[in-house]
Amino acid sequence: MPILPFMFLFAALFSGAAIAYFVGGASILAFITLDKARYLAALPQRAMSQLDLFAFLAMPLFILTGELMNRGGVTEALIRFSMSIMGRFKGGLGHVNILTSVFFAGISGSATADAAALGNTLVPTMEKQGYSREYATAITAASSIIGPIIPPSIILIFYGALLNTSVVALFAAGVVPGLLLAAVLMVVNGVIAHRENHPGGDKADIPPFFQSLFTALPALSLPVIILSGVLFGWMTPAEAAGVACIAALLVGAIYRRLSFKDIHEACTRTVVLSGAVFILLVAIATFGYLTSLEHLPQKLASLIAGLGLGPIEYMLVLNLILLLAGMIMDVKAAVALLGPLLIPPAIAMGVDPVHMGILVGFNLTVGLLTPPLGGVLLILTTVVDIGYWRLVRATLPFLVVELILLGALIFIPEISLALPRYLGLLG
């Protein structure tokens, strides 16, 4: 295949412009240079067939739910409830940061949204209590990637639709790894808290448990609605997303923090984000059409067979590629661009597609904490006003344990598959 389109795409990745335009442009250029321009007549039908998937309906609804909840006074209620549980321990505010991210994960499913929300609220609070700005921001960054792992997860919906994998099974598979990630981050925070003599919770600063629980119940009800409805088969992911939108409006009304202006801004933001996602999907459909015409998946499978790579070896190589992609690419773009090309050979080797989905989501979100770009790091440097490389250095201990956990997920599939297997969601 001519290398010009791929040189164009590789150069475009570092230009800062929207990746959808360059993926689509490089694909069209490849059609022309390969003398396959006649096939472009079928491209609109091909693209629409890939967009017309029921699973994609849940994506804009979950985005809208997260936008409504972030504007509806949820952050303060969840922080107070987390403080009532974990605030009394050594390094308690670090534990509160992680636990709040777990609660947020069941609402927004977005690492960048969680990082921005908690960076504005918890980091100043931790500074006032004696934590360094670097450490407070680092633990916020590290815990924010819990969001795309615990359902509802935009990345898992994306993966499920593209790879024809059950979104319900993916949601179930994300629960244990997400909670395990929170647990290992709390262990690291506890060790550092004792080493650096971080402050413990002053009883005067700890809100009463039952009062904070009562205040947080409307917000906490949302993950329960989504998880119970989807995992126990009462609702499809799209139906659960619709119910969650209504619940988010009710929660905003209960907290009296959601105005008509906020609702309008949430809807506008949802339209913008959803439009960006679907433009990307059209570009990826163009690239996928080209790869199918050129039989690239089959050629890749033959290359792997020729190299003699077994399932474990290929999984390690694949995860290294995904980790590198996560450093420089948008997560959804990386899933859409690399998933249909690199994941089918792994599935053909016997890797469970649900397990693969969790690895893809976990791996790419870890990339949000990794230089040279690191989306979460870039957002927090702006929100908190901290030097980029100072934040990178402070994040390293958390990044190391997250990579160790990723290795455990690769070698022990049952960590992610046990719950969906117990619920009867694996074929």
General description of the model:
The chain has 427 residues and is mainly α. The chain has one domain. It is 76% helix and 0% strand. The chain contains 20 helices and no strands. Helix 1 runs antiparallel to helix 2 and helix 11 (209-231) runs antiparallel to helix 12. The longest helix has 34 residues, at 260-293. The radius of gyration is 22 Å and the shape is globular. 50% of the residues are buried. The mean pLDDT is 79.
Q: Which tags fit this structure?
A:
mainly alpha, globular
Question: What layout of secondary structure does this protein have?
Answer:
Elements: H1 4-13, H2 19-33, H3 43-51, H4 58-71, H5 74-86, H6 92-105, H7 111-128, H8 133-144, H9 154-162, H10 167-196, H11 209-231, H12 237-255, H13 260-293, H14 296-307, H15 311-328, H16 331-348, H17 353-366, H18 375-384, H19 388-411, H20 414-422
Helix pairs in contact: 1-2, 2-13, 3-13, 4-12, 4-13, 5-6, 5-11, 6-7, 6-8, 6-10, 7-8, 7-18, 8-18, 8-19, 9-16, 10-17, 10-19, 10-20, 11-12, 13-16, 14-16, 15-16, 15-17, 16-17, 17-19
InterPro entries: DctM, TRAP_DctM
Protein name: TRAP transporter large permease protein
Function: Part of the tripartite ATP-independent periplasmic (TRAP) transport system.
Succession of helices and strands:
HHHHHHHHHHHHHHHHHHHH
**How many angstroms does the end-to-end distance come to?**
38 Å
Mean pLDDT across all amino acids: 79
**Helix proportion:** over 70%
Subunit structure: The complex comprises the extracytoplasmic solute receptor protein and the two transmembrane proteins.
Transmembrane segments: 6-32, 53-74, 94-123, 135-162, 168-192, 213-234, 240-258, 270-291, 303-326, 333-351, 357-384, 396-419
Family: Belongs to the TRAP transporter large permease family.
Membrane topology: Multi-pass membrane protein
